Amino acid sequence: MKKLFLFFSLSLMLIALIACTSDTNEVVYELPDNRWDLSPSFEHSIVNKDGEETTYTIVGKQDTLGFTGDIIMDVEKIHKIFWFYFGKENILDKPVEVKAVKKDTEDIIDLHSGTFYKGAEVSPDSVNMPSNIKFPTAGVWKFLVYIDGEFYESIVVEVN
After folding, report:
1. Lowest CB count within 10 Å: 28, 32, 44, 98, which one?
2. Which domain, by its residues, includes 67?
């Protein structure tokens, strides 16, 4: 009887130990909201190193994040775009992940991983990060941008 009790106790402890062990470093990506209106574009002007003014058309949000480059997205084409960070936090050299989800689906795809770094400052108010983006299918897509493992911003675009 003591052996049975000992076996049963050890089995319960082993099950509890296995149940409490998990990979806590895994990041869970969730959809931040259910809004699917296409993101607006705006003009962003800087004075370059030569003292000349350069204006970019940016898709996104003026106070947080946006991108320039191929504003019109086509399926199966690799788009070279530059991400602009306009936020107030110091995000230099922190890992950035760009993911996307297609409207009416829940499958999140990886599009780009990189960093905003000091040499990529285009003005005192913005820093950029180049990337190559390719969408697998046409439709309305939401970029999900994570900085240092935390959701930062979403941008909605249409892919033809």
Report:
1. 28
2. 2-159
Q: What are phi and psi of 55, to 5 degrees?
A: -115, 130
Token pair, residue 22, equals: 């998990």
Write the CATH number for 33: 2.60.40.3830
Cβ contact 143:100 at 8 Å: yes
Specify the length of the chain in residues.
160
Q: Record the pTM.
A: 0.76
Buried/exposed 31-67: b ≥16 CB within 10 Å, e otherwise: eeeeeeeebeeeebebeeeeeeeeebebbbbeebbbb
Strand partners, 146: 97, 151
- If one counts the domains in the chain, the total is 1
How many angstroms separate the CA atoms of 84 and 63, rounded?
10
Question: What φ, ψ does residue 12 adopt, rounded to 5°?
Answer: -65, -40
